[in-house]
Amino acid sequence: MNRITEHPVLQPEERKKVAFSFDGKKCEALEGEVISSALYANGIKIFSRHKKDDGPQGIFCANGQCAQCSVIADGLTVKSCVTPVREGMKVATLKGTARLPRVACVQEFGRVEELDVDALIIGGGPSGLAAAAELGKLNVNTLIIDDKTTFGGKLVLQTHKFFGSVEDCYAGTRGIDIAGKLEHQLKEYPSVKAWPDATCLAVFSDKKAGVLRGDKYYLIRPKALVSATGAREKSLAFPGNTLPGVYGAGAFQTLVNRDLVRPAERLFIVGGGNVGLIAAYHALQAGIKVVGLIEALPECGGYKVHADKIKRLGVPVYTRHTIVRADGKEGLETVTIAGVDEKFKTLPGTEKTFEADTLLIAVGLSSVDEFHAQALEAGMESFVCGDAEEIAEASAAMFSGKITAHKVLKSLGVMAAPVPQFWFERLEVLKSRPGVTKTPAAKDHAKPVYPVLHCRQEIPCNPCVTVCPKKSIKLCGDSIMNTPQFTGDCIGCFKCLIICPGLAVTIVDYRKDAKNPTVALPFEIGRGLVRKGDKVQLTGWEGADLGEAEVVDVKDFKAENTLVVIVKTTPEKADLAASLKLFPAEAGRKTVTDLARADDETIICRCERVSLGEIRRAIRSGMRDLNQLKAVTRAGMGACGAKTCATILLNIFRSEGVDLKEVTGFTRRPLFVEAPLGVFSGVKCRTEADEKASWSGF
Questions:
Q1: Which of 214, 365, 372, 423 shows its CA 20 to 30 Å from the CA of 112?
Q2: How many CB atoms lie within 10 A of CB 306?
Q3: Of 352, 332, 334, 324, nearest to 237 (Cα)?
Q4: Is the pLDDT of residue 97 over 80?
Q5: Is the pLDDT of residue 493 over 80?
Q6: Given this model, what pLDDT does residue 595 score?
């Protein structure tokens, strides 16, 4: 079983075992677990065979956005990533050529229930929860819904500590804990109702929202609607991109951090933004080898401290590189990368191939704003916040939600205090891109014990300043974007070290030995990996090798799930040491690849297996309407509703020299989430086998 039984932050809970089968093979799941995670835990990564070429397919988003993970469960086709396993469930590979069981329809439901609310919030992530709390403070009749069983959005997947402001957005607290705090806050406000496992299917022209909660359908009539629906991951086109084992970073975090399933042994990552960098760190925490990470730009776009902490541990980061191809028979086996020039063209002769069983695609996010657009078309009072409005950090999403709630209050005519001006100012700061990276300042004191602050890039963050009992750490300016500096006395309490989200604070201590100081280093990779007496490799703030040192103590701050490894070193290395190097970097093998070969075979539309060559031929024939393109090639016609390919299709038009002003976009589908048609008319579908079983009971 590929389950994570030990983790430095997460504590696996005992849960009841559930027996099910896959293609006749006996398998075991945990109670409440979705099918996709259960299959991965049982070592199964192929969920379906495409009808067009019988190609193997696995998961991609694990968030219900695409249909890549579809299987047959008890005779019905379902998305395995959002369908819980039931005792005795019979799951089978979905094959395009296979005959599905006939379905019988039975009238089971009564009339559709309609509800009136002042505000409907779609999405229970940080922005939605923050908005709900603000509305609850003024007793506004609010309903917040989320399609997951737990509120918190992507926060429930985040084991790292968050940046930002301690007083405003829980900086220095792990994402999983922030989610709990935000959800618990709603209990203070009786006027706010929270529905988990409730999916908005559409917003209709009569100003009602259709919501499927469990197996019951509701029509919600809000006076104001808030879309806090977050974002979906972008896809990427390259040969081999549909192989099982190639999927989004969010799907990986769902498996590892939500469901405690170890889905990989050797992982490669495409994308150096915060999502990719954090996923690499989460993989290391789960005991997975991270072979490498590539970024096409000259520098990673995410926070430098995120990049530095994986470099320090030994993960190679290749900037100015791109993915050339992924190869394998029934799943990913190798990844080939190459360098790129200033125009992002691949450089022949720079190709390297690495063995990997999993490739994460972390190349950005797209706002999920379809419900907001529908509501505006219907003439509703509609608002949008968080990533659905603008992609940013969770800390910014909280402020976005609070500000949006006050816009809702105004639309409802509810008297409320004016929005504090600093909310807008803080929101802009929290949305800021990383600023300049400063060179390390020379030591200007002779304190016997002191912190070394290895965060050199301007990012919004102040936990170390807030927590210092001596008030000896201050920002170099008035903004939380400024870098911190040590300006007073230190008592060696470790508080700044433990709270730092970037693991960028160490404590140098000369009090016991004036010639051979100790350095306390933060460590979150795993208990038992480093012990007193071990010889370890020290690394600098950007991963430079500083040689060997001896571990003299390991302190376990269990309440914060952080270890502090204390090593003995020299004065020359003490201020430079930032971490331990745990993993030797792999160079990859030099390969010669025909970069032009198979380019046209790259799959663009995953659902319908439409290739780049087919798209190019249509564009070169003069096609400028995506709806016509869909009719001719089937691109965008699949179950995901063009969620994964629409952006790529526009990029292809651009690469073909077509001005996007000439391109007509897809006509939006009336429903953005798949649902059994019966839910709209009070009809439930069963397979023939289910019908026979129910009749045999009479």
A1: 372
A2: 25
A3: 324
A4: no
A5: yes
A6: 58
